[in-house]
Amino acid sequence: MKTTLVLAILACVGLTVAAQKNGIECDACKAFASEIKKFVEKQVPLEEVEKEAKALCDMLPIEQLKDFCEKHLIPEVDKLYEELDKETPEDACKLLELC
Fold first, then answer.
1. Residues 6, 59 contacting (CB under 8 angstroms)
2. pLDDT confidence tier of residue 87, bands split at 50, 70 and 90
3. What is the CA radius of gyration of the chain?
4. Eight-class DSSP state of 76
5. Where is the signal peptide (predicted)?
6. How far apart are CA 3 and CA 94, in angstroms?
7. In the chain, which residue ranges form alpha helices assigned H by DSSP?
8. pTM above 0.70, yes or no
9. What end-to-end distance do the CA atoms of the chain give, in Å?
């Protein structure tokens, strides 16, 4: 699952290189939220999801993306966890004002 997130985020970054900053942030949030949603669907406890989310950010090879993940996505894991029970990753990222 960790590899899936890394590849998804890298693919998003590659597809949006020419896009504005918000486009990249939105794509990164949606990729991250998609992974969190998988945990929510499996009813993984929030504490475990928080640990996995931090590990996923640590695995990112691009420093700027890693910083974004740590500063903007990790602090929102609890909100994402709650929202993704009823929302799509895109809608959850809109609620966080990242899309």
1. yes
2. very high
3. 12
4. G
5. 1-18
6. 25
7. 2-15, 21-41, 46-59, 63-68, 77-83, 89-95
8. yes
9. 23
